[in-house]
Amino acid sequence: MRSFMLHSALGLALLWAAGNPLASPDYALRSTVPSPRLQAASHHPYSWLMRPYNEQQTLAARFAVPVGCQRIAAAPNSFAHWLRYLPLRPKNTPVYLHNGRLKTPQTVHAAVLDLDTGPHDLQQCADAVMRLRAEYQFTQNFRQIHFRLTSGHDIWFGDWVAGQGFRVQGDEVLPAPRNAEAPTHAALRRYLDQIFTYAGSLSLSRELRPVPLGEVQPGDVLIKGGSPGHAVMVLDVAEHPATKRRYALLAQSYMPAQDMHVLRNRPSTGLGAWFYIDPAAEWLETPEWDFTAAQLMRWQ
User: Fold this and answer.
1) Which end of the chain is less congested by CB atoms within 10 angstroms, N or C?
2) Per-domain residue ranges for the chain?
3) What's the CA gap between 52 and 209, in Å, rounded?
4) Which N-terminal stretch is annotated as signal sequence (predicted)?
5) Where are the beta strands (DSSP E) in the chain?
């Protein structure tokens, strides 16, 4: 992953006093899926979508839980609830790289998120995790959005749209005034592309705190910080009420930047896209990376 040793402080910035950041059209939901469903029947909180939101093409609709299990509770408007109803592209959609070429191999994914990657080699593994977190926070309060660069500098989206940008000069991060703008989704994407350039798995791992495997929740991140490093997002969790065994749906981008995709478990497990999260395990194997038990982390 990208790694930069940067040294300097960014100046304080004014906060942009704007209203609701959601700028995408309102789309009527065309059908229902098992409860809990999205709170607003005539709105969806996935601001990047350029097509109508379809409840039949979501994570919750596509992936039934393992036999005897139930999805864990997720409060309306929570990150877990938002992740559970992420839009998916149609079945059998391949994973494409940022340049339009096919990912190799095409055997590690069970579904592709309906989420743009962008034309540049930026939205890699940790970047895709940050993208989902920022997109959710954008639906709640845009002033919550911030990420640390590898240098440790904390860059807030509210400051950035208020006119406080930054530039990298050698090993230094320097203030760089920019034109103030409304906190639209287009502005968020420009901000994130700049974050992706100077942040990665190392910086993201420093923003998270470790949690035990047995306590896995949607929104948690499996992450190995460094170069190379990798990050995988926990999208959903199901639990067996009697055995308390937990299973997770996982998603990743990778290098080079590519469509974020739901991972497929080994065929021998019989679990499809679900991964058993063994609280006593030392390792958790995913198709393209193996994580230690200590590498399950949660947002602060």
Assistant:
1) C
2) 59-299
3) 36
4) 1-23
5) 70-71, 109-112, 146-148, 154-156, 164-169, 172-177, 208-210, 221-224, 230-239, 246-252, 261-263, 274-277, 283-286, 289-292, 296-299
